[in-house]
UniProtKB/TrEMBL annotation:
UniProt xrefs under InterPro entries: FAM20 (IPR024869), FAM20_C (IPR009581)
Pfam families per record: Fam20C
Family: Belongs to the FAM20 family.
GO biological process, one term: enamel mineralization
Protein's name according to its UniProt entry: Pseudokinase FAM20A isoform X2
Species annotation: Pundamilia nyererei
Taxon lineage: Eukaryota, Metazoa, Chordata, Craniata, Vertebrata
Subcellular compartments: Golgi apparatus
Residues that, per the record, bind Mn(2+): D308
FAM20 C-terminal domain sequence ranges: 183-400
Active site: D288
Superkingdom of this protein's organism: Eukaryota
Length: 421
């Protein structure tokens, strides 16, 4: 039915091409099952403090596997299917906007979320573009994983860059006819595909290979929601997703006092975790953190997942101070976070140097341009300056908070420290 509408919309040519392509035979790859496989170990290692532990060899292996393993199948992600109501919605935390992203499965059954390249490394987000319509940047996803690891948060699932052959690793291995139908060949003879077109497909929304190879980020999937349920919670510092709207936090300088009285921000570490996340987002320049996710098994003390960082690193010259509002308005920071930031502000461990070195490990290097790397140092100093100002005003004891200070014991988290089934 929907395809019919597209045809009527004057896209006859593209769709007959797609239909011709749709007759291709699906490549059947062999599957290897290994109970010792890296993605499974990654899942089993998730605990209430972080997604993986420091120097975890499992993550290094997972990174290698995602980088090189044969892709055996491709599909839309569950949240994209939810847009059409065609999904197992128990597997969706929150239905999402329609961006170009796919779920790829590897030979060892590892699953990864693929976000294709939409923008060159040196392209900047134009001044007049709102954060909520900004493109998704695959290199931002990659860089955010490295930064999160360097900050010792370990709240971003492992991400790698990879050149994906969208013909042999997507079109020819997908069983999903809707996905096959959005493939076409461009006038330059490159293979392209659209985001799911709910209304009219426009070629400017497509991503194209060269002729088949397309850069993208691959983010390791978290355990399924039936094994490790997660919930999505609106950020108290959510922005207005309209052209003119203002949220309370933008106009009320005492907003944090209100938040501090409200569950779950009135005890434990949740507010400190939000502040960590705001520091992370400020460093990458991400204004799009509307929700955050947590694993329900770990109760209120669990860490916040830093998923979806693709809208970071859009403008190297802009330091969006409003992203830091949770820190500047609440004037609190975990001691461990502050110590790490102070370390990375020293010349021997300069954040941009550590990032540059870390990003060199990715096969799509360079991941960030120099101006974006240097912006990290500048922004880090701004974070430290905000903390310094708070300390001057309120004193160290008020501002610098010991980790897990008023830890409220949660029944599930207290007995079950890991995700083991
Ligand atoms: N690595 C992952 N493992 C499992 N689920 C994930 C992973 N990354 C993202 N998701 C889920 O998929 C949803 C959509 O992902 P993401 O936000 O990255 O894409 P998006 O296209 O920007 O969506 P949105 O428009 O909702 O922001 C997330 O809210 C999250 O629930
Ligand atoms: Mn998103």
């Amino acid at each position: 039915m929907q395809r019919k509408q597209h045809l009527q919309a004057g896209h006859m040519k593209l769709y007959s091409l797609a239909a011709a392509l749709a007759n291709i035979t699906v490549t059947n790859h062999e599957v290897t099952y290994d109970p010792d496989t890296s993605w499974l170990k990654f899942h089993l290692g998730i605990n209430r403090y972080a997604l993986y532990s420091r120097d975890d060899p499992t993550v290094l292996q997972l990174i290698k596997d995602m980088q090189s393993m044969t892709v055996i199948s491709a599909d839309y992600t569950q949240d994209e299917k939810a847009l059409k109501g065609a999904c197992d919605c128990t597997q969706v935390v929150k239905p999402s906007g329609h961006h170009l992203k796919l779920a790829l499965k590897m030979r060892n059954l590892a699953k990864a979320m693929f976000k294709p390249m939409r923008q060159q490394r040196d392209e900047e987000t134009p001044e007049d573009v709102f954060y909520f319509v900004d493109l998704q940047r695959h290199n931002a996803e990659i860089a955010a994983f490295h930064l999160d690891r360097i900050l010792d948060f370990r709240r971003v699932p492992p991400v790698v860059g990879r050149l994906v052959n969208i013909t042999s690793e997507v079109l020819k291995v997908t069983q999903n006819e809707d996905l096959r139908a959005v493939f076409f060949t461009s006038p330059a003879n490159n293979t392209c595909f659209f985001a799911k077109c709910l209304y009219v497909c426009k070629t400017e929304y497509a991503a194209c290979g060269s002729p088949d190879l397309l850069e993208g980020s691959l983010s390791a999937y978290l355990p399924g929601l039936s094994i490790a349920p997660r919930i999505s919670i609106p950020s108290p510092w959510i922005r207005s997703y309209t052209f003119t709207g203002r949220e309370e936090w933008e106009v009320n300088p005492f907003y944090c006092d209100t938040i501090k009285q409200q569950y779950p921000y009135n005890s434990g570490n949740r507010l400190l975790n939000i502040i960590d996340m705001s520091i992370f987002d400020f460093l990458i320049g991400n204004m799009d953190r509307h929700h955050y996710e947590i694993f329900t098994k770990f109760g209120d003390e669990g860490f916040l997942l830093h998923l979806d960082n693709a809208r970071g690193f859009g403008k190297h010259a802009k330091d969006e101070m409003s992203i830091l509002s949770p820190l500047s308005q609440c004037c609190m920071i975990k001691q461990s976070t502050l110590l790490r930031l102070q370390l990375l502000a020293q010349s021997e461990f300069r954040l941009s140097d550590v990032m540059r070195e870390s990003l060199q490990e990715d096969s799509l290097r360079p991941i960030l341009t120099e101006p974006h790397l240097l912006a990290l140092d500048r922004r880090l100093h701004k974070v430290l300056r905000v903390v310094h100002r708070c300390v001057r005003r309120l004193g160290k004891d008020e501002v610098i908070t010991e980790d897990f200070f008023k830890s409220t014991v949660t029944p599930e988290a207290a007995t079950d420290g890991t995700m083991q089934r």
